[in-house]
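Async update (no meeting this week)

Hi team, since we skipped the sync, here's where things stand on the single-chain job. The sequence we agreed to prioritize is pasted below, unchanged from the tracker. I ran it this morning and attached the output directly underneath so nobody has to dig for it. Comments welcome in thread, and please keep replies under the output.
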Amino acid sequence: MRLFDLSLRFKLPLWGGGLIVATALALSTSYVVQAWDNLNHDLLQNAEDVGRTTAHALFPVMLHDEVWAAFEMVSLPFTANPGTPLIASQIVLDKARNVYVSSHPQEHALLSPLASLGPDFAALDRELLTDANSSVLVRDVLGAEHIYVALPIVSDGVRLGTLIVSYDKSLLWQRFSLILGRSVWISLLVLLVLLPITAYWGRRMMLPMRLVTERISRIGSGELESLDPQLYPYRDEVGQLFIAYQQVLSKLREKAEFEREMVKSERMAAVGRLTASIAHEINNPLGGMLNAISTLKRHGSPDPVTQKTVSLLERGLSQIRETVAALLVEAKVKSRPLSAADLDDVRILITPAAHKQATRLAWTVAIGDTVALPSTLVRQVLINLLLNAIAAAGRGGSVALQATANASHLVLVVENTGQTLSAEQLGRLFEPFTRFSESGNGLGLWICYQIVVQLGGTIAADSTPDCTRFTVNFPVNPKPEHAIHDA
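Output:
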């Protein structure tokens, strides 16, 4: 895998850490180079200052040929600072570039030619010979152990000799190494603080992006997963992406729910049209058969076996007629407006079923004198829902009704305890011939759905471990095709 193909949650901390390291190295290098230049400059400036002062003081001493006094002058830095002075040695040369006096006479014998003191001094001797008129001569050769600064001992144009001050490079490197060490430790400390912060913020910023990417990749499979807003509560570009995903997710959910409702409505409408067509076709021969049986019972003299058989046929055909009648749900019926008395009638009608099951009824009705809805259809919906709730609650269960009305809507809420409905059952709840118990023909809820939809309302169900709830919402001002006629 290439570096650029890595996830941003790894790539961002790596790039950020790399930039921090590069910046720290650049700043440290710049600081170290500047420190070395400053040390070198200070050393040479100090050498010139000390050398000029010493050379100026040596002129009268050499003029009077006071060798001992000259020795005391060049030895003063070592006697005053007996530790490890930066100056390695001081040598005074006469006009012929022979040693006049030295701070270390054992190493630099008096009257010894400068060239005889070693390779470095021999090279310095050649430079002095070439640049005899130079005021200050500095010799700093890479790899050499010392830096040499040569200054003329001169006054009023008269030159008596040369002062050579040598500096030990090892002491200079010791001071430089201290500065270098401090710089390295400071850089490491900065990196130790910044790199974890960069890694944390990189992963922190990329977490919502990674989650959004994963969720988007699963949208095609129908998985619409939300993200916790507290994962990234900021309003920058990443936060805006987070918010945009949530908005898109909300729109997709609305679209999916709308499509499901459309499919469900179309399927239910198609089933309704099919069942209504079948019911009409069955009704014609069914009515003829029932009339024939009625005529046979009134005018015939069948034997007991035939009478029993005719009675069985009549009951069976009557049951078929009732089932067919249930399939022919029409909202265009003549019915008086709904009133509170109708809900009292419903309570009276379902009370025997509740007593038989020992079901507790809770009844809350808050509607006006009349509601502009067909009482017959609303009562049928309410009776079906309450009888189903009593059956589902089981022995000793509870059923509650809440009915409220205002100028625009009538809302019926039926709740019952008992077995919880699964998500699959809730999805198929209003389909015809769907049974969730041993009793009934599976048409009650489908009839309720057909009536509610034809009256322009909505019906919904939800189920929790505590209760199952059906909520019906009727618009009080029905459409023209749902107009109510007084009986």
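Quick observations from my side:
The first strand starts at residue 87 and ends at 93.
Residues 290 and 314 are 7 Å apart (CA to CA).
Reply here if anything looks off.
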